[in-house]
Protein: Transposase
Amino acid sequence: MLLNQKYEIFPSDVQKETLDTWLSYCRQTYNSALLDKQRKYKLSKESYSRSAMQTQLKRDKLAWTYLKDMPSQPLQEVFRRLDHAFIKFFRKEARYPKLKKYKDYNSMTFPQFGHKPNSHYCYAASFAINGDLQLSKLGNIPIHLHRPIDGTIKQLIIKRRGTRWYAIFRVERQVYPAPINRNLAVGIDVGLNKYAVLSDGSYHENPRFLRQTEKKLKRAQQRLSHLKRGSVNYKKQVTKIQKLHEKVSNQRRDTLHKLSFNLAKKYSVIAVEDLNIRQLVKNKRLSKSISDAGWGMFRNMLSYKCERNGGLLIKVNPHFTSQDCSNCGTRVKKSLSIRTHICKGCGTILDRDYNASLNILQRGLEQLDKMPVII
Ligand SMILES: [Zn+2]
Structure:
């Protein structure tokens, strides 16, 4: 399986500028391929294949020679991204691909890394002898390898986040399937009140340091609204907000990594609700807190961490998980504000989210029993 390992890199100011420029070339290429695709479809219902895009890129390079200033692989990789965006759209997993603005386009992919096997040829991205990251047409960039790279590097993604830059290695690693243990199963209800409520009776809240940074960010945003647009202090405040944003998202990702790691280690089967997150985000009242809480990210992490540990993540039908009684199945309608489940059928009284987590576990186990056994 492929896993991501992320490290911070430290390009010089000149290199940062170059990387910024390369990203904008990638973005331009993406946007113009998207426009060409739309135009071709409108004119003749013709599809615009990846190889046709590559041919067009070759022509573009003759007209705009600056495109030759960057390695060609990340530029070609752009078309794969566009293809992928359309595939996701047709699968109804994403909206129709749109033109990318500066802030939406923050990474480029080097689809090959290191030395070509049995040859002296080096791909556009590799490690230099001194351990720096080496990109052709750019040079060496110091990298902080805070933990060893575990597995074979298949690809490299260079990513910009605010003012910082990262190298993300896509690493292939062998996993050994372990037998699923039905007795080590848990249901998790992810919510807004408490971050995660488990069917074993425990729960997890967002840690205090994360809440504190979020508060600081909120205050900084309020202050910005009182400053004069374009003034020196305004610009300073914008930079400050960017940095706080970065901090919040780093802290959140970190928290979710730790939580999902511990859960995947402890349990063999984890059941969660199969929420169509996109649908939920459309609901304006809840939208901010939901997308903020990074539920989708959490589910992804759980999914690959379970797989890595030989466990299983089961997504269950979310309908009525918080309404149905986990003891007798009676449906007890309640609005979002009612936090306690009181069953009219059997008299069970439980915390709303805990009741939901029990239902999720039960549905997960039912689904597990129907799954084919892999030996
Ligand atoms: Zn009941």
Summary: The first strand starts at residue 2 and ends at 9. The chain has a mean pLDDT of 89.
